[in-house]
């Protein structure tokens, strides 16, 4: 997993016509989540939607990333009116570049998936914060309480 001070991997390999150039000179919050339309992921994204105005007022752009398809993201985004892009990464290139793919357990059974993680980048793409203990229902508040 990336650590504070690292330079963020390039966004050029993903959808939504986004690239690092899209965020040049802007602070960015990149949140990785396992799956569209699941309870925890929906709560997290809706919390960020509800806090979006305040996060933007502090100079941040938001980008969500999961291995779901673009069509799944489009439906998820439209259903909940997300004002930020959701990036489809079905080949897990960006997910693996950030180090958030690995073995997890559910009911004692191992499987591979996305570790719910949020990265906060400065205007130069340098990692300022990593949140691995994401509070899905209050994630926007969690970010704002960092004093960012």
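-> sequence recovered:
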């Amino acid at each position: 997993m990336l650590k504070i001070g690292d330079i963020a991997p390039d966004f050029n390999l993903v959808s939504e016509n986004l690239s690092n150039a899209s965020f040049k000179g802007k602070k960015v919050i990149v949140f990785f989540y396992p799956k569209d339309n699941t309870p925890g992921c929906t709560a997290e994204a809706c919390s960020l939607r509800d806090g979006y105005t305040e996060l933007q007022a502090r100079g941040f752009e938001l980008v969500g990333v999961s291995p779901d398809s673009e069509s799944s993201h489009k439906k998820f985004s439209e259903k909940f009116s997300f004002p930020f892009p959701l990036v489809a990464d079905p080949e897990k290139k960006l997910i693996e570049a950030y180090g958030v793919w690995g073995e997890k357990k559910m009911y004692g059974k191992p499987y591979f998936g996305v570790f719910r993680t949020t990265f906060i980048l400065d205007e130069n793409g340098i990692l300022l914060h990593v949140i691995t203990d994401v509070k899905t229902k209050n994630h926007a508040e969690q970010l704002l309480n960092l004093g960012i």
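The longest strand covers residues 60-66.
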